[in-house]
Write a structure and sequence with these properties.
alpha+beta; Rieske Iron-sulfur Protein; eight-stranded mixed sheet; three-stranded antiparallel sheet; 17 strands; 21% helix; 36% strand
């Protein structure tokens, strides 16, 4: 139900009789959040980790630390390449070098390294899904040929932000499995967020996305986890049906994670795609800035969960 003070500029939604009148602190049950989290963590990952947005890889080599290992990422002949960020000659950091003829050049002695590798120095298996770059460091165990991507709209307009937090990936997922905090922790972005239903693995909410203080769009959305490091929000009713927000949590090292969140927006309105083609370069930074603002706050939530699990609360 939209708050009376809101002007809903989206499509109207049917009445929702299942909305509870209980206060959010009673509805947010730690036992359910933990059980849903454990089911997500038990799912196979295929051995894949999200690195970053494809757009984040520019004209030079870039450094990333993923699951305790150092990598260099660059644009190569066949696409984005990922390899150990240590020159096989004397160990220089390759991400401090430069690109020449689509090879990464060591800054110490000029050794050029490409997709063909050199001795034990070999690029990792990577995957470009059109928006995000993934890597698969190892080929054994439950490794799959490509990441287990959630359903995405077609066509879509995408925007991605990345930030780091002092927590583990499980804390990122737990934050998203607790939608009850949304209108309390983010009053600038959400109004009247209410849970419609939940089962063992998914939760459906009705939420007003604020455009201004008094203007918003009301939608129904489902949150679910396709793998142990991803949670996806999919709009199922209201404006932008089929749009998704993928939140990927990539471990950097124990107690430190990268949150890579990509929004893939769609609409059946005929003016949507022409508008995005014309003004997308202005719209994308706005979406990314808004997502970053939310995750600065949600990062604090995830970090607090991590502190409590580690017993480092000094209060």
């Amino acid at each position: 139900m939209t708050e009376p003070s809101f002007l809903n500029i989206g499509r109207g939604l049917p009445p929702a009789d299942s909305i509870s009148d209980l206060p959010d602190w009673k509805q947010a049950q730690p036992a359910w959040i933990e059980s849903a989290l454990q089911r997500a963590l038990a799912k196979p990952s295929g051995g894949w980790f999200v690195v970053d947005s494809k757009r984040a890889i520019g004209d030079g080599p870039k450094h990333y630390r993923i699951d305790g290992q150092e990598y260099v990422v660059w644009k190569a002949k066949s696409g984005v390449a990922v390899a150990p960020d240590s020159c096989p000659h004397m160990g220089a950091r390759l991400s401090d070098g430069f690109l020449r003829d689509e090879c990464v050049v060591c800054p110490w002695h000029g050794l050029a390294l490409g997709e063909e590798g050199l001795g034990r120095w070999q690029p990792l298996t990577s995957y470009d899904d059109g928006v995000l770059i993934w890597i698969r460091p190892e080929s054994g165990g439950d490794a799959t040929e490509k990441p287990m991507l959630p359903a995405r709209p077609d066509p879509y307009f995408d925007a991605t932000m990345r930030l780091e937090a002092r927590c583990d990936p499980r804390d990122v997922l737990a934050n998203r499995l607790d939608p009850w905090h949304g209108s309390h922790f983010h009053p600038h972005s959400f109004g009247n967020l209410r849970v419609l239903e939940k089962d063992d693995e998914a939760i459906t909410v009705r939420v007003v996305y604020r455009i201004t203080k008094r203007v918003g769009m009301e939608v129904d959305a489902v949150f679910d986890c396709p793998d142990p490091r991803t949670i996806v929000m999919t709009i199922i009713r209201g404006e932008g049906v089929g749009s998704v927000v993928e939140t990927h949590a990539t471990p950097i090292e124990p107690g430190r994670s990268a949150v890579i969140e990509t929004t893939l927006a769609t609409s059946d309105r005929p003016q949507f795609l022409p508008f995005m083609r014309a003004f997308g370069r202005f719209v994308r930074p706005v979406i990314e800035k808004r997502a970053r603002r939310l995750w600065v706050e949600d990062g604090a939530y995830a970090e607090r969960r991590y502190e409590l699990r580690q017993g480092t609360d000094s209060g």
